[in-house]
Amino acid sequence: MTQPFATVVDIARDIASGNTSAVEVLEHHLARINEREHDIHAFNLVTTEQARATAQQVDADIKAGKKLGPLAGVPIALKDNMCTRGIETTCSSKILEGWKPPYDATVVTRLQQAGAVMVGKTNLDEFAMGSSTENSAFGPTKNPLDTTRVPGGSSGGSAAAVAAGFAAASLGSDTGGSIRQPASLCGLVGVKPTYGLVSRQGIVAFASSLDQVGPFTHTVADAALMMEVIGGHDPLDSTSLPQPMPSLTSVLGQGVTGLRIGRLADMPDGCEPEVLARMDAAYAALQAAGATIVDISLPSLSYCLTAYYLVAPAEASSNLARYDGVRYGMRVETADLHSMYGATRAAGFGAEVKRRIMLGTYALSAGYFDAYYGKALKVRRLIANDFAAAYEKCDVILTPTSPTVAFPLGDKTSDPLTMYLCDIFTIPTNLAGHAAMSVPFGTGAHNMPVGVQVLAPALGEPTMFRVAAELERAS
Amino acid sequence: MSNASSAPQHSTALPNGWEMVVGLEVHVELDTKTKLFSASPNRFGDEPNTNIDPVTLGLPGALPVLNKHAVELAIRLGLALNCTVQPSTFHRKNYFYQDMPKAYQISQYDQPINIDGFMMLPGDVRIGIERAHLEEDTGKSTHIGGTSGRIHGSDYSLVDFNRAGVPLVEIVSRPDIRNSDQARQYVAELRSILLAVGASDAKMEEGSMRCDVNVSVRKPGEPFGTRCEIKNVNSIRAVGKAIDYEARRQIDVLESGGTIRQETRHWDDSEGRTHTLRTKEDADDYRYFLEPDLVLLDPDQAWIESIRASLPMLPAARRAQLATLTGANKESESVYVIVERGQDEYVSAVAQAGGDAARALVYVQQAFAEEGSTPKVAASDIATLTQMERDAKITATQAKTILSEMVANGGGDPVAIAAAKGFEALDTSAVEAMVDAAIAQQADAWSKFCAGEEKAMGALVGAIMKASQGKADGKVVTAILQARRTQ
Amino acid sequence: MSTPPTGSNPARITSEVVAKVAKLASLQLSEAELELMTSQLSGMLDHFADIDKLNLSNVAPLAQPFPLKNVFREDVVVAGVDRDEVLAAAPAAQEGRFRVPPSSGLGEQ
Question: Under DSSP, is residue B103 helix (H, G, I), strand (E, B) or coil?
């Protein structure tokens, strides 16, 4: 696939070498935003002025001969659930509309230190709950490849921003597939790192034991570079892994010779035939490149959806309880405290968020805890055990990222369960805390992109990126 | 709070053979520089909302990180309460309240850090400690308008989050307490232990130590009755009063054919009674679940042992040691007082310097109430003073005068002070001569005294003391008079 | 809440239970929302009954992906946030504090 837009690696190199300037690169991207954003709605906020100031600073640093960060001058978009000091952070929710955090998320600080230029905050399904970015309180984002279709979700704005050339890369968050699925639907690389590899500090929590931040990029090399910038231990996140961030940019050329690629022996129903055809092509390509294909099974795979849709809402019901109209965000004034809570939260949250808060509250409540939340945690153990057994036989597993290509807007909004089924292949990784990424691998129905998902065990990113790079070469 | 609270007082017996069953839940704020899960200051009395940060305010995206020193203090306390320190976890306790920024409190639930301890009270009474777990404190509201700042009927509330996230240990006793004396002794002893190990400043008046009391009544041997939990019991005195009130209230209800409802009650100290706060029926459903933002707390054995090794001698052991040294009863008020003031080492230093330990105990209790654990007066000088009195070189009254002067001047040589004041003790033959002179002068009093009228001795002693200008030792005078009478 | 279920998932969720859950979650729901929520939650819970087939009696729950332990910070003060900045963004503030409507009950410890 030829690349319509400049990559992170190219931009960083050209700015550092003086072939172009940070301001010039930024203006190109701002021009594209001006041109297409009204059709796409990738952003909740375009931070034009701050971006120009940062770009000018980068150019001044270059002139002054200062040492540059690896992303110096690269325009990057952030999902609007990442705290940015003094810049509105809404989670696409009315309840947080207008809220300006007094602090930066760790990943934001790391991007800044690397010289990145933040161009804006991207749209998402409210509080990252959804698979199409249609649940935003500020209206849906459209797929830049076909604006009648969804970009996927919940990080649909971040995916669309990169796919439309508004930013060279973006960050999303992935709780059950919210990076990988939109990456797949928009023809991008999207990475869900091992749980704890990237700091969650300053990321507005959806489901704390599942959430991870990762990049959207056009290329695997860009993703590797972004991971190296944002990854690594953070003392402000107690669940941050103590291990040093492994090098990923250095492994991309190592090939896949001798690697064992796991193939699901029994593929769940519901995949489009074109998607399955691309999977066969992917296995064949890796085999041709020297890998072996081994059949594996994940017997608990079909139960993951249930486990996820109990665990994630349970945690969310607690994480979202803080939006109570007392300290920040929206308040509906009423005569007493408890009716203020009820009215504020009723007016501030959208339907899907309410549904999940209700489901999660129910799953945790007295009398139902063991039957729902307790059981879901046990199923979570089963899938982790399944993966452990599978990784005895193989180094990575290949699945589709999404059973379908991007679907039309409004297609799945009436029945929440249909929407939940989009996540069938992505959820297990989050439950286990493992690494996974989506790599574009040709097109399927309606000439829309198909993504192949590479799954790896915890901290298996180097191997995962080798395989991803090989798929990219073959696509 | 005074030491007297720990000395036995008078909890009146319950009527008709009723017995009370009491358990205490005591919250103490740990003496750390920062909060349990954030680097915001843990400081009492600051301007509202100045000790806040994203974690304290529960801002979106903020994450907790456990304060190591808070853990160490919790372990110190646990070890001092004879607890087992075990691997522990944190849970979220979910409920909406204005003082609770995240709408959940991070607390320890089914795996607390300290379990299965005990505390000994006077009379070898053993009170079990079920658990002593870590949790975070809430913010604080001021209720404005309505009647006198109470929550009911107020117009609005103002919330200060300075206290939110301050590290707490909740110490939960077993229901082993059987009267209000024991309850008061338990709280006083817990406070002494907290101070001794440096875990908390334990100021009930500032709220850094707060008591909730569970009370039920039964006839001995019967199963436990339905209990009520009393909140807002903010002094040791109030602990005793609230328990006595509540037990009697429950007995009244039961004896008039009623039943006790399990409920939370509020102690009104000014009215001296408890009120219903809420009943079990409207109890919240806290939806406890493991806090996903925190990890297992599993202190290794080496750390625990190094904390154990660094523990100071605890109040009970110090009282026993002081009692042995001074010959006093280990449950006597003076022993409690001296150990609570931390002056037991000083008494021991007096004895080391050759002083009389029993006299030193009395001197220190009487004269050093305003001094800390290291009085300014040199222990060796107190030792000398006790020797002077023991050897009858000065009288007890003179010794007291000298002691006052030493305390007032922050020290001094008792020999020199005695000399300056002319406190030279009279030798026995001189006293005997004065006694004989007094008998001659006060013949009437003498004959009454000889007839067994003990009061008459006063006039004789007074005359002798006057003649000696106070230099005669009262005890010696009395002894000589007694001897003369039986001759 | 009704009596705890044993073993398998409890009976169909009723609108009374949904109303109680909404109260716990501090979500004011209209009658129509309550009805829709009841039917949607019922549908989901029916689907989620699939895990009742599994024998989970000897399976340990997995609440977090990795067994990390003893993650601490030192007891050192770090500058927090500015009170005025935070209060300016609050829905209501007065005298350096957050202002809220009156509450009808006392909070928990």
Answer: coil
Q: In 3-state terms, what secondary structure has residue B147? A: coil
Look at the pTM and tell me if it is higher than 0.95: no
CB neighbour class for B222 (10 Å; exposed up to 12, middle 13-18, buried from 19): exposed
Q: Which of B34, B47, B93 sits opposite C77 (nearest CB)?
A: B34
Q: Are strands A449-456 and B84-85 parallel, antiparallel or unpaired?
A: unpaired
> Residues A265-306: pLDDT tens digits?
988 889 999 999 999 999 999 999 999 999 999 999 999 999
Number of domains in chain C: 1
Going from the N-terminus, what domains does chain B have, and what CATH number goes with each? 3-309 (no CATH), 313-420 (no CATH), 428-486 (1.10.10)
Res A121: pLDDT: 98
Q: With a cut of 70, say whether residue B148 has pLDDT above it.
A: no
Among candidates B57, B103, B293 on the partner chain, residue whose Cβ is nearest the Cβ of A321: B103
| pLDDT at residue B2, as a whole number | 39
User: ipTM of the assembly?
Assistant: 0.97
Predicted confidence at residue B146, as pLDDT, reads: 75
Total residues found in chain A within this entry:
475
pLDDT, tens only, A432-460:
999 999 999 999 999 999 999 999 999 99
Q: In this complex, do B142 and C97 lie within 8 Å of one another by their Cβ atoms?
A: yes
The domain containing residue C29 runs over which residues? 10-53
Residues 14-73 of B with CB under 8 A from A: 54, 57-66
Cis omega (within 30 of 0) for bond into A21: no
In a domain, A432, yes or no: no
CATH code: domain of residue C23: 1.10.20.60
Interface touch C80/B34, C-beta < 8 Å: no
**CB pair distance less than 8 Å for B61 and A209:** no
C93 within domain boundaries: no
pLDDT at residue A345 is higher than 60: yes
The pLDDT of residue B425 is 63
Give the containing element (helix H, strand E) for A169. strand A169-174
CA A361 to chain centre: 26
Distance from CA of B219 to the nearest CA of C (A): 31
Q: Judge: B48–C97 Cβ closer than 8 Å, yes or no.
A: yes
When pLDDT is cut at 50, 70 and 90, the band that residue A356 belongs to is very high
Cβ-Cβ contacts under 8 Å, B106 against chain A: none
Tell me which residues of A are annotated as active site.
Answer: 79, 154, 178
Contact B98 C64 (CB under 8 A): no
| A55 token code pair | 């770009």
Measure C76 CA to nearest chain A CA, in Å.
13
Mutation to test the B interface, candidates A88, A92, A236, A336, most B Cβ within 10 Å: A236
